[in-house]
Design brief:
Number of strands: 10
CATH class of the largest domain: Alpha Beta
Number of helices: 11
């Protein structure tokens, strides 16, 4: 019990440190870097690592031998360089679940929980071990229940000796776990990220998208048991890629945003029936598009295809000295009160937290 209490106290300290430095973690990306399945390794400063502390009587005796005071021991040489005046800062890497981070994000940004829309869920079958049976496979034998039966039999038959409390189960004492089938609805969601990778989108812009997508995923996964993620990159043409390629590809040339929207539409039509999926497309760009005609095509796709089908459509415009930012203006002008469209202007890394709040703060 004491170990569990210590562990819980340590987790509370870690959680407190994360909340204390939350904005720094989000804007500098420490939390995104080391992912292992459901965990993230996070460097936490200023937690004292337990160590032995000796009292006056435990500090050791006088050394014995022929050496003289001041001589090096075992050939060790004096240290080099000047003594520093500041103490070193110690970092401890701890494993934190992505669900824990999502909860902290929700608390810090006061995010509302998401209610899956309509009947967009699939039935998932699980097995709940809820009873005991005198027959069953050996792999499901329940030791504690079997021992209790043997103990009751020994006491009832008068063979139990408290001075020599040996209890030997026999066949009729054995108990096995039994299970029942439980069918529960599991809400599924898909996040489809689209990003402009033309020459005007540099490394800084992609890093902003990388950090935002981590937190968007974390929060959606906390709200949906089944979450899929797809990635589309585009310049004048669009293609689906894996996550690593998504954040490392650079292209030159023009931009046709409609190429990404058309590919996203194809994905939804082929793989994500509306009755089974909650759908979240996110598009990140610096706002440049090749022509007004292509922009009109994008606006038409949003109006006729995306808005009737998706939970929300997120557009994040990343500030770039090469981008005009016109696409955001066109969206705001065309859809001034569209509930399904969420627009966020991300001028730099310091705006990431506000942008995440923009996207996730409406509980869609």
């Amino acid at each position: 019990m004491g170990i569990q209490e210590d562990n819980n106290r340590f987790r509370d300290i870690v959680r407190g440190r994360i909340k204390q430095n939350f904005k720094k973690y989000v804007t500098h990306g420490e939390m995104v870097g080391k992912r292992e399945k459901d965990y993230v390794k996070i460097p936490i400063p200023s937690i004292d690592i337990p160590r032995f502390k000796y009292g006056p009587k435990q500090q050791g005796g006088v050394g014995q031998g022929t050496g003289q005071a001041g001589e090096a021991v075992d050939g060790d040489q004096p240290g080099q360089g000047q003594a520093g005046e500041n103490p070193g800062e110690h970092f401890l890497e701890v494993d934190v679940t992505i669900d824990e981070l999502a909860d902290i994000l929700g608390e810090e940004l006061a995010l509302p929980r998401i209610e899956p829309k309509g009947n967009k869920n699939t039935d998932v079958t699980t097995y709940k071990y809820s009873g005991r049976s005198p027959v069953g496979p050996e792999g499901l034998r329940h030791f504690k229940a079997s021992y209790k039966e043997a103990l009751k039999r020994s006491i009832a038959s008068g063979t139990y000796d408290p001075d020599e409390p040996f209890v030997v189960p026999i066949r009729r004492d054995l108990r096995y776990k039994t299970y029942r089938k439980v069918v529960k609805p599991q809400a599924n969601a898909v996040v489809i990220y689209m990003m402009d990778v033309s020459g005007s989108m540099g490394d800084e812009q992609k890093e902003i998208v990388r950090m935002e997508s981590f937190w968007i995923n974390a929060w959606l996964r906390r709200n949906y048991k089944g979450l899929e993620t797809r990635f589309i990159i585009h310049d004048a043409a669009a293609k689906e890629v894996d996550e690593k390629t998504f954040f490392s590809t650079s292209e030159s040339g023009g931009t046709l945003i409609s190429s990404a929207y058309k590919l996203c539409q194809k994905m939804i039509e082929e793989d994500y029936p509306l009755e089974a999926w909650n759908i979240y497309p996110f598009h990140f760009s610096d706002g440049d598009n090749w022509s007004g005609e292509d922009t009109r095509m994008c606006l038409s796709l949003l109006q006729k295809f995306f808005f009737p089908r998706v939970n929300m459509f997120g557009y994040g415009q990343v500030e770039s000295k090469y981008g005009s930012g016109q696409f955001l203006k066109d969206l705001e002008k065309t859809f001034p009160s569209e509930d399904k469209l969420v627009i966020s202007k991300i001028e730099n890394k310091e705006k990431i937290l506000q942008s995440i709040k923009d996207f996730l703060g409406k509980g869609k």
